[in-house]
Every structure is written in structure tokens, then in C-alpha cells.
Amino acid sequence: MTKIAGVNHLKAAAALEKAGFTIRRQSGHIIMTDGIRILTIPRHNPVNAYTMGDIVRAAGLTPKEFRKLQ
């Protein structure tokens, strides 16, 4: 598992929007999709490093690509 520490949930959502994902709905979590993949981002600040690593991997990005989008 890859760690990406100290990411605010709103900044993570903004970075994923740059990667082509759109926000589908928001409540206790932010649900994003690109039409194929569905990502769930918890509304915690900061998002747990292991959780953020899993989200980035599920988005089809490498940690390096994600950091460039931030």
C-alpha cells in the first residue's frame, strides 16, 4: 500500500477533478466518478495516509501523478 499523508479532503477532490473525475454526490463522504470508476473520499482532515493511497490507486494514478495534480 502506498502512503500519501496529510491531504485535505477538499484538495484531494480538486486534484481528482483535474484527473477527469466529477463529484456525483456529497454527504459524510464525497463520491466521485469518471464514468467507469467510483471513488469514495471520507470527509476527514487530513485523510488517513493509507486510505488516500488506496483512493489514488483506485483512480488509476500513481502517487507521483497525484502529487502533480495537487
Write the layout of secondary structure elements.
Elements (H helix, E strand, L loop, with lengths): L8 H10 L3 E5 L2 E5 L4 E5 L6 H10 L4 H7 L1
Antiparallel strand pairs: 1-2, 2-3
Task: Describe what this molecule looks like in 3D.
With 70 residues, the protein is an alpha+beta fold. The protein contains 3 helices and 3 strands, in the order αβββαα. It has helices spanning 9-18, 49-58, 63-69; strands at 22-26, 29-33, 38-42. Strand 2 and strand 3 (38-42) form a beta hairpin.
Mean pLDDT: 91
Order of helices and strands: HEEEHH
Distance between the termini: 20 Å
Structural class: alpha+beta
Low-confidence stretches: none
How are strands sequenced across the largest beta sheet?
1-2-3
Number of helices: 3
Helix content: 25-40%
Short description:
The chain is α+β, with helices and mostly antiparallel strands. 39% of the residues lie in helices and 21% in strands.
Summary keywords:
single chain; 70 residues; alpha+beta; three-stranded antiparallel beta sheet; 3 helices; globular
